[in-house]
Write a structure and sequence with these properties.
The protein has 4 domains: 131 residues, 3-Layer(aba) Sandwich (Mannitol-specific EII, Chain A), CATH 3.40.930.10; 98 residues, Response regulator (Rossmann fold), CATH 3.40.50.2300; 162 residues, no CATH class; 176 residues, no CATH class. Strands 1, 2, 3, 4, 5 and 6 form a 6-stranded mixed sheet that branches. The protein has a 5-stranded mixed sheet with strand order 9-8-7-10-11. β8 and β9 form a beta hairpin. By secondary structure, it is α/β, with parallel strands linked by helices. Helix content is 58%, strand content 9%. α19 packs antiparallel against α20.
Length: 657
């Protein structure tokens, strides 16, 4: 299959103009639509923006290849645009982007189409090819340039295959793996750059590509054994156990594209560190070049939170259903389990919810120390939840225990992870004959013992903090709880799924835990958090519906979906709009969410469910006023956004004058 079979003349724009990155993506998506291979334009656009959140797909030298692999695409396709005046696309070299290709790939098993897309990516590594595309006067001329270059590329690939057979017999100077999150473009461009630079330097290299089409050119044990070192240019986790004892340099895939010579020199000149397995598990491929300490901590925290949420949501909603079912027990101390049906939901939900803290701590620890950190992390989380201390060992009286709660579990996760890393480093000095028993015996025994002792010593401190915090919250007057609801509601809109959003949400879910001692106050907090998270998509939906001349036709179509996302408590529905116009969208949504959260608290609304949005309104305390709070916040945010945002020209909005 040829590249031009995926790129039609109507999907090529010569001499395009874009005001910014979001505008460029929007125009490329419209070109892609002409091919009829995108079944859900809004979902596809969101997937493209989500890929950009990993890092700009601009490569430098005036080239960008935005792309997404998603179920919103029915068949692979390409769209292209030249931009003579350029657009700021956050390129690594700071130069404007003048040539763009948009890739759409279906979320299905790999097929021949992905090989075609990878071939295009590699062609774009040739400056002369790119210059010829920029110089094209018509879409037909643009496609002819691609056809000619592809003919030459296919011939070169055949010759390369013959050379590879010879190289396999002679061995390789170094080996490499390239991979990116979507595995469509950057994976193969990095491989091409490394291969070309190695050939130029007179070196033999074999590069394994781990793309959407699966692993290609797979490294054998013989390839690895004969190589002087390994380069990992990847933005996702790579299994590194096969490289134990080899010099290994790991970096983001973008460096494989832009700095192949630097990476090769790191290995060939002996500067790459020796890789030692940590329990034989997969290790993260990309290093933390330039990554702040806070960002590392945030990634570990989000690993714990993302694994914890299914337990919180599943357990929380089942518990909420128990209260909904148990109308006979209403007003009694047995409310929620006074009848068998309610007891069924409450027992299952309670057990699932009870795993929240151990899961959080366990997966924070495993993010830090990989698989060896998992057992110590779980144990640390259990100790945090139970509140075990040294005084308990003398009496074994569980009634004296006070849980350290969420704060203790956070500490346990990080402490277990870093303690396990320290144990692994210390064990590096042991004889190689003990290598096999480290992950199965030494790491779990020493790691679990260490975190157990640490938590026994520190749990009283966390228990005191937790008790003081809960007492403060439980004792808040009406005015103060309103302020808290306002702050938490606003935080849900600050970054819509980012650190502020997650901090507010985790605080709300932790307040529901029976061990928190907050009781009804915890449910008031959760109601404010949930209503605050529902507002941003509703702000967008209302504005695109009632203020049509502020939005393009594509925006208005996307706005309809936000009604469902808002009612479902999915704040991320507003992200594409916030990314395109953060100056107007974010402040409007933050104000609307803050008002909704404050009103919910002022009305005394409660939510025993940690998720579900409007669909769990039946278990919300004072549901009518909770819905009023949501609507007021959404309407206020809509009005601020719509009157602040300037009307578009008829040509932009697609509306008649």
């Amino acid at each position: 299959m040829r590249i031009t079979s995926l790129l039609k003349p109507e999907a090529v724009k010569i001499g395009g103009v874009a005001s910014d990155k979001a505008d460029a993506i929007a125009k490329l998506v419209k070109l892609m639509e002409t091919q009829g291979n995108v079944v859900d334009v809004d979902a596809y656009t969101e997937a493209v923006h989500a890929r950009e959140s990993f890092g700009s797909t601009a490569l430098g030298e005036g080239i960008a290849i935005p792309h997404a692999k998603t179920a919103a695409v029915s068949a692979p396709g390409l769209a292209a645009m030249t931009l003579p005046e350029g657009v700021d696309y956050d390129a690594p070299d700071g130069l404007p982007t003048t040539l763009m290709f948009l890739i759409a790939a279906p979320d299905t098993k790999a097929d021949v189409h992905l090989e075609v897309l990878s071939r295009l990516s590699m062609l774009l590594m040739d400056p002369e090819f790119c210059d010829s595309l920029r110089a094209a006067k018509t879409p037909e001329e643009f496609l002819a340039v691609i056809d000619a270059a592809e003919d030459a590329k296919l011939a070169a690939e055949n010759a390369k295959a013959a050379e590879a057979a010879t190289a396999d017999a002679a061995g390789y100077d170094l080996v490499a793996i390239t991979a990116c999150p979507t595995g469509i473009a950057h994976t193969y461009m990095a491989a091409e750059a490394l291969e070309n630079k190695a050939k130029e330097m007179g070196l033999r290299i074999k590069v394994e590509t781990q793309g959407s089409a699966g692993a290609k050119n797979v490294l054998t044990a013989e390839d690895i054994a004969g190589a002087k070192g390994v380069i990992i240019a990847a933005d996702k986790n790579i299994e590194l156990s096969r490289f134990d004892g080899k010099p290994l340099y790991s970096c983001p895939v973008s460096r494989g594209i832009n700095e192949p010579e630097v990476l090769i020199d790191e290995v060939m000149e002996g500067r790459a560190p020796i890789h030692h397995n940590a329990g034989g598990a997969a290790a993260p491929a990309a290093t933390s070049d330039g990554e702040s300490t806070w960002h590392k901590i945030y990634k570990h925290l989000m690993n714990g939170v993302s694994h914890m949420l299914p337990f919180v949501i599943g357990g929380g909603i089942l518990t909420a259903i128990a209260f909904l079912v148990d109308q006979p027990g209403l007003g009694t101390s047995a409310y929620g389990s006074s009848i068998p049906a309610a007891a069924l939901f409450k027992t299952i939900g309670g057990e699932a919810f009870g795993l929240m803290l151990p899961i959080l701590a366990g997966y924070i620890a495993s993010s830090i120390a990989d698989r060896p950190g998992l057992a110590p992390g779980f144990v640390g989380g259990l100790f945090a939840k139970a509140g075990y201390d040294f005084a308990y060992l003398g009496t074994l009286d569980a009634t004296t225990l006070v849980s350290g709660g969420f704060i203790a579990a956070l500490f346990a996760g990080f402490a277990a992870g870093y303690l396990t890393l320290g144990i692994e480093r210390a064990c590096d000095k042991l004889p190689s004959s003990l290598e096999g028993i480290k992950p199965m015996l030494i790491y779990p025994v020493l790691g679990t013992l260490a975190i157990g002792v640490v938590m026994l010593a520190l749990n009283p401190v966390f228990a005191a903090i937790n008790t003081a915090l809960n007492g403060f919250l439980a004792g808040l007057g009406t005015s103060n709880i309103v302020v808290l609801g306002l702050v938490l509601g606003g935080m849900m809109s600050v970054d819509m799924g980012g650190p502020f959003n997650k901090a507010a949400y985790v605080f709300g879910t932790a307040a529901l835990d029976p061990s928190s001692g907050l009781g009804t106050t915890g449910q008031v907090i959760m109601a404010s958090v949930m209503v605050g998270g529902m507002v941003p998509p509703l702000v967008i939906a209302l504005s695109t519906t009632f203020f049509k001349n502020r939005w393009t036709k594509q925006d208005r179509n996307a706005g309809l979906v936000n009604y469902i996302m808002g009612l479902s408590f999915i704040s991320e529905g507003a992200i594409p709009f916030a990314a395109a116009d953060p100056g107007h969208v974010l402040p409007s949504c933050i104000i609307g969410s803050a008002i909704a959260g404050g009103l919910s608290a002022a009305f005394g609304c409660t939510s025993p469910a940690p998720h579900g949005g409007a669909w769990v309104a039946a278990v919300i305390g004072n549901p009518a006023m909770w819905i009023v709070a949501c609507l007021v916040g959404a309407v206020v945010g809509c009005l601020i956004l719509s009157f602040w945002k300037k009307p578009l020209d008829a040509s932009e909005s697609g509306l008649e004058k």
